[in-house]
Design a protein that fits this description.
By secondary structure, the protein is mainly beta. The protein has 5 helices and 22 strands. The two termini are 13 Å apart.
Length: 364
């Protein structure tokens, strides 16, 4: 844990926070306060951060988040008050920072301490995760057969999606890039505790890729549309995953795989339609294909904490595919800007059988 101490004051563009190596200034485009790193910052820390502001605080409180790509190891910071009294609002109106203009009567600046918690580099050179699960955890809480699976992925800016991930995780990357995926499949013959049937359903999820401080690399579901209300209610209550009751239609045949979604409850309306042509089997998946499909768990926020839910399954049998058509707003409805270009990867799989295991708490 590294700490720096700075001053909350005024800046020509508004309130700022200055410290050795740090300067925090408003970002009008996002309503956030951007922290730029200057000289003297340890090389193991990111060179840029962004702090989300509270609605009633012009200075901002909470967690520093990534503001853009960096060549250094990501970091996360929290601010808490120390030294002199006062609060963020008072600091912004009363103090003056380096190079800025006073916004009120000249008074003593309010000092704060910034604690910077470092992220370890868990996987050097952005290598993909292992193609096979290292071991099958026990016990098994739930089994599902995933059938006729369509994977469509677009590149995403890690800084643009980081706020969608739960506390204690950050975007997982491959060669500096992360991805947003639309994944559609049939859930067949699910059984709780290996014996109790829970009923199958069709699902379409929008997902992102995450890694935590323990190096566990998984997925974060931004939304999960399913056509079985009982499964939606159970999954939301027991695991905290964002299932939404929707009309989902999936079909596959000689011409490929197609599907459609129309959202019901909860949340704002959203729809999508797509058609994928299926090609040859992939004998040896490339790094990107492994990165997008070899995920041995998921991160989710549940009951005020972040948990890791391990998942085990055999490696996916993957086929090349081509996205013939797509119309919809599932990604924007999940808070992910829809990429303007074509997808970076389109895959299809006949499926696999997955097992879910007891959740583990993620260290924030």
């Amino acid at each position: 844990m590294a700490s720096v101490t700075g001053v909350v004051g005024a800046h020509s563009r508004g309130p700022c926070f200055t410290a050795p190596g740090f300067l925090l200034t408003p970002d009008p485009a996002t309503g956030s306060l951007a922290v730029g790193a200057a000289s003297g910052v340890p090389g193991s820390l990111r060179t840029a951060f962004r702090i989300r502001t509270a609605p009633d605080s012009p200075v901002g409180v909470g967690m520093l988040q990534a503001a853009g790509p960096s060549t250094a190891t990501p970091g996360r910071s929290r601010r808490r008050r120390g030294g002199d009294g006062g609060g963020p609002r008072r600091a912004a109106s009363e103090a003056a920072g380096a190079g800025g203009r006073p916004t009120g009567a000249a008074r003593a600046p309010v000092r704060w301490r910034v604690d910077v918690q470092q992220w370890p580099r868990e996987h050097p050179d952005d290598a993909p995760p292992p193609a096979r699960a290292s071991a099958r955890p026990v016990p098994v809480l739930l089994t599902q057969h995933w059938r006729d699976v369509v994977f469509v992925h677009w590149e995403a800016d890690p800084g643009a999606v980081r706020h969608l991930l739960p506390l204690g995780t950050r975007p997982d990357t491959l060669a500096g890039r992360t991805y947003a995926g639309l994944v559609a499949f049939r859930v067949a013959a699910p059984r709780a505790l290996g014996t109790v049937p829970t009923g199958g359903f069709d699902e379409v999820n929008v997902r992102l890729y995450s890694v935590d401080r323990q190096g566990r690399r998984g997925v974060v579901f931004a939304t999960m549309d399913a056509d079985a209300l009982s499964s939606v209610l159970a999954a939301r209550a027991l695991a905290g995953v964002p299932y939404i009751w929707s009309d989902v239609s999936l079909r596959s045949g000689p011409e490929g795989a197609a599907g459609a979604v129309r959202r019901r409850l909860p949340g704002p309306p959203a729809t999508a339609r797509w058609h994928v042509a299926v090609g040859d089997r992939i004998p040896e998946p490339a790094d990107l294909e492994v990165f997008l499909t070899a995920r041995w768990g998921l991160h989710t926020a549940h009951l005020g904490r972040t948990v890791w839910l391990p998942v085990s399954h055999p490696p996916w049998p993957l086929h090349r595919a081509e996205l013939r058509s797509y119309r919809g707003d599932l990604l924007p409805a999940a808070g992910i800007p829809h990429p303007p270009g074509p997808p970076a990867s389109v895959l299809w799989s006949p499926g696999t059988t997955a097992a879910f295991h007891p959740p583990q708490r993620v260290r924030a």
